[in-house]
Specification:
Elements: H1 2-6, E1 10-21, H2 24-30, H3 33-42, H4 47-63, E2 68-78
Antiparallel strand pairs: 1-2
Helix pairs in contact: 3-4
């Protein structure tokens, strides 16, 4: 918001938007889960544990019990 106001925009507001996921593959791509696992492995997580976690997410998606959500924020202003 601060940058929008500094740019001279008026009526600056923030609108949150939540996205719900019921499929692991969709969530994995949009939330970059494989990349998060790669970073965790680089920081010391055993690669086997990361692979198991991703496989578990996929299994839950296949059986219809997967759920994830993410909230993003849209900043809006007028010139």
């Amino acid at each position: 918001m601060r940058l929008f106001a500094a740019a001279g925009l008026r009526d600056v507001r923030v609108e949150p938007s939540s996205v719900l996921f019921s499929q692991a593959m969709e969530a994995s791509m949009l939330l970059m889960l494989p990349e998060a696992v790669q970073r965790a492995v680089a920081d010391g997580l055993p690669a086997r544990d990361g692979a198991r976690w991703l496989a578990e997410l996929q299994r839950r998606g296949d059986e219809g019990t997967f759920f994830a959500a993410a909230t993003g924020f849209l900043v809006i202003g007028t010139a």
